[in-house]
Amino acid sequence: MVKVKVLVAITILMVWSFEGVIGDPQLNLLTNECSAETINDLSNFNRNLNASFAEMRAQVTDHGKYFATAQSTTGTEPVYAMFQCMNYLSTADCAACFDAAAAEIRHCTTPITNGARVVYDGCFLRYENNDFFGDNSLPGNSVRCGNQTAVDAITFNTTIQQILQNLQTATPKIKGFFATTKTQVADIAIYAVAQCAETFTQDTCSNCLSIQHNNLQGCLPNTNSRAIDPAGCFTRYSETPFFADNQTTDISPFLNQGGSSSKKKWVVLSGGIGGVVGGVILVVILLSLFSCHKRSQSPKRVTKGYMLGETELKAPTRYKYGDLKAATKNFSENNKLGEGGFGTVYKVLYDGSEEDYLLRQAWKLHDRGNFLELVDKTLNPNSYDANEVKKVLDIALLCTQASPAVRPAMSAVVVLLNSNNLVGHMRPSMPIFIESKLKPHKDISASTSSSMTNATTSNSIVPAR
């Protein structure tokens, strides 16, 4: 007897553990809207409404359909109805969702109205007294944002935007306009679904999902959100599973955007790359671009005496006082690094040039919108994509922001490098120690403590997170 009780308890626990995935019609009510217009012949309308609902329920239960339409046009009060449930629901759950929606939508019959729609997580139901099957865009797009915020907001936001973009691209190309994905980011799995009514076209479905993609931006970084379109378009994402892992859609064949094969492809390294290694990769990319740019400027030929090794063997180099005064801007506090054993230490470039390192030059070109100046002028413009160059520069600069909390993790960097339009939503903020050098100030004097702070910051900020 004890063993039987234990088995029953285990069975109950197993059923509970699958709640939200199996045996759940997902009856979380999202919206219930009633038309403002009433009908004239109540009995005629109810007969047509009941007939339409009965026909659609039969399509679900008897034929296993997830999408159904019906119409009953007897008399003066015709009824057109549409029902659709999520493809990951079982037939029983789909029917249960229909029954709940049919009961809920009848609340609009007091007084009786000529149209209504109900949307649950698992299904939607709509009826009108006119043929609306061709509708694919209606006013009233809305979102339902969750109340929990992601721990790593930057990585989460980047991942969600890529998920939504992929669903927007793939779903309209899939038969039935339905797609589900599961995306693993570190130890978190994100489940997502996109659906359009089967009366949509590929273009109208894409447009509807695009609107929902934009609307959901306002929910980030909430971990569970939905977008609803009254015409029959739906998008949802959540860290909590709401369908089984074996019910995901392989959308990869539908993500090919095309494009010229002559363009260069950026190779992305993924897997267990640490933040430091990833930062080095980005810096190397920028260094390569910048070195090409510097070579195109045809610098003066360096004499053999300046080569590494020979320089170290030469006697101490002597400089004229006037040259040192000019190079340090009259021994300005802005160029002072600190005090050493042999006196005050100033920062001055050996070759007298104004640009002292790549990062400041990259920020300057980014600030001016002249990022292509980092590319070797001898390269054929047709051999690279200007947008790809800008994307890599933007991502690299995101990794040099002052606060480590706002720098993207390497998992987010991989997503950004693979994406087409996500970087545009993330504007890097210039570190203060660089910004102060690029923007004019009314007070040109700077204290020693300020200069030393800048110097210290520049050493600690360059590595990526």
TrEMBL record:
Region feature Disordered, mapped onto this chain: 444-465
GO molecular function: ATP binding; protein serine/threonine kinase activity
Keyword Cell cycle listed: no
Ranges for domain Gnk2-homologous: 27-132, 138-242
Signal peptide: 1-23
Superkingdom of source: Eukaryota
Keyword set, alphabetical order: ATP-binding, Kinase, Membrane, Nucleotide-binding, Receptor, Repeat, Serine/threonine-protein kinase, Signal, Transferase, Transmembrane, Transmembrane helix
A Pfam match: Stress-antifung
Transmembrane segments: 266-290
InterPro entries for this protein: CR_Ser/Thr_kinase (IPR052059), GNK2 (IPR002902), GNK2_sf (IPR038408), Kinase-like_dom_sf (IPR011009)
The UniProt record lists the keyword Disulfide bond: no
Biased composition (Low complexity): 445-465
Protein name (database record): Gnk2-homologous domain-containing protein
Organism of this sequence: Psophocarpus tetragonolobus (Winged bean)
